[in-house]
């Protein structure tokens, strides 16, 4: 008897596979919110809430985790007018879960598209589009079902914001699996670049190296700021522990509060970055926390806030070394990359190296600073928060101030890094 050599089962359509992949991501990310709320509810923490009310709260938490703002309605005041506010806070530590799951889904969809008869790009985008539409439908459904008189999210925001967030993970995973952008776009980028002029290729390589240097500067500054935050928490651990003791909510409350703080640790690291640049941050309207002095009013009982600096700091200005050092690293990396085509072009235009070399280095520093400043603005935007209540509508750094200070300090460091690059490489060559 001859055994069949082909699989006679019907293949799953890519759009359906994409929908199932991100459906799993939505379910797993929901557990991050559902499990703590269920634990608190089962232990009697929500004495006045029914199971349905706790479920709606979990749905609202899932939306906030994805960056969806909630419109809050507060009871009428003494004048008879009802107040409202907008709660918006993205826990950058927790949102990594749906993003990583979306990245995994993107890789699986890219792998499933290899066996397609049609073009690879067309089949892949069919799967990605199905996944995004499914996630948008889930977000809109959660926004509809979790509405309460006290808090509600727009159906449009519930559909678009979570889908746009996981789209980055999907595309990153597909790009990782494909190995290049050309298969995803259906365009041979290498051939297109080959048809362009040499001058255009140099300009493109120069700009791409600038952008990567700026990204490296932001990444290095954020990493060093995270170390600074860890040191501050360690030095002020007594104050953190005192707030835990003052809350006295039992093991369940302590566990939930700790998970919540871990979810916001990346936000706090970016706030530390803003503090180190001198731009500072606000923890409530009218407050100011800078390396030179801090002025804050009453704060909520959140243990990690016990690590905040208080009063005047004698050596707080030394924190400015963090973004400057990140700029030094970016300038050195740009030198090692060997893509300073502006300097090469200026050298061809004039033999006065005493003039062209400083001019190209200054232009390089300004461009790296602008790229890092743009990254700082984005970091401030995603890390800011608003509780929609009273003075706590302004939490976090000012995007424009952070971008300007970070651009200036990284540019200064980039000049130093590019200047010492030849010396460092010469020493490395001797070894």
TrEMBL record:
Signal peptide: none annotated. The keyword Membrane applies. Keywords: Membrane, Transmembrane, Transmembrane helix. The keyword NAD does not apply. Pfam families: DUF6350. The chain crosses the membrane at residues 22-42, 54-76, 82-102, 123-145, 151-172, 205-233, 253-273, 280-303, 315-335, 355-382, 402-424. It comes from the Bacteria. This is Uncharacterized protein. It comes from Arthrobacter echini.
């Amino acid at each position: 008897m001859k055994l069949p050599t082909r699989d006679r089962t019907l293949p799953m359509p890519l759009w359906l596979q994409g929908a199932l992949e991100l459906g799993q991501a939505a379910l797993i990310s929901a557990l991050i919110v559902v499990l703590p709320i269920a634990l608190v509810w089962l232990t009697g923490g929500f004495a006045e809430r029914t199971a349905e009310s706790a479920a709606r709260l979990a749905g609202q938490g899932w939306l906030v985790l994805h960056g969806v703002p909630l419109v809050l309605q507060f009871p009428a005041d003494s004048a008879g007018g009802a107040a409202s506010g907008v709660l918006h806070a993205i826990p950058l530590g927790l949102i990594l879960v749906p993003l990583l799951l979306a990245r995994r889904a993107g890789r699986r969809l890219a792998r499933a598209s290899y066996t397609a008869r049609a073009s690879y790009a067309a089949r892949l985008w069919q799967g990605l589009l199905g996944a995004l539409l499914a996630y948008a439908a889930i977000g809109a459904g959660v926004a509809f079902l979790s509405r309460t008189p006290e808090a509600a999210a727009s159906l449009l925001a519930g559909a678009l914001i979570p889908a746009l967030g996981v789209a980055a993970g999907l595309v990153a995973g597909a790009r990782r699996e494909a190995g290049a952008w050309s298969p995803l776009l259906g365009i041979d980028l290498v051939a297109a670049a080959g048809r362009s002029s040499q001058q255009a290729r140099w300009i493109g390589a120069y700009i791409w190296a600038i952008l990567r240097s700026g990204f490296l500067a932001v990444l290095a500054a954020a990493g060093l700021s995270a170390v600074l935050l860890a040191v501050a928490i360690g030095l002020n651990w007594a104050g953190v522990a005192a707030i835990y003791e003052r809350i006295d909510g039992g093991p369940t409350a302590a566990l939930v509060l700790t998970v919540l703080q871990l979810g916001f640790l990346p936000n706090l690291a970016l706030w530390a970055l803003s503090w180190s640049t001198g731009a500072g941050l606000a923890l409530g309207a009218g407050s100011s926390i800078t390396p030179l002095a801090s002025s804050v009013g009453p704060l909520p009982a959140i243990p990690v806030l016990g690590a905040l600096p208080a009063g005047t700091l004698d050596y707080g200005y030394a924190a400015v070394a963090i973004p400057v050092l990140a700029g030094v690293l970016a300038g050195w990396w740009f030198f090692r990359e060997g893509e300073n085509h502006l300097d090469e072009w200026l050298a061809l235009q004039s033999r006065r190296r005493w003039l062209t070399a400083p001019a190209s280095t200054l232009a390089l520093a300004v461009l790296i600073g602008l790229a890092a400043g743009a990254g700082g603005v984005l970091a401030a935007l995603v890390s800011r928060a608003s509780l929609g209540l009273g003075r706590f509508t302004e939490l976090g750094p000012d995007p424009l101030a952070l971008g300007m200070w970070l651009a200036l300090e990284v540019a200064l460091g980039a000049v130093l890094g590019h200047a010492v690059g030849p010396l460092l490489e010469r020493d490395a060559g001797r070894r």
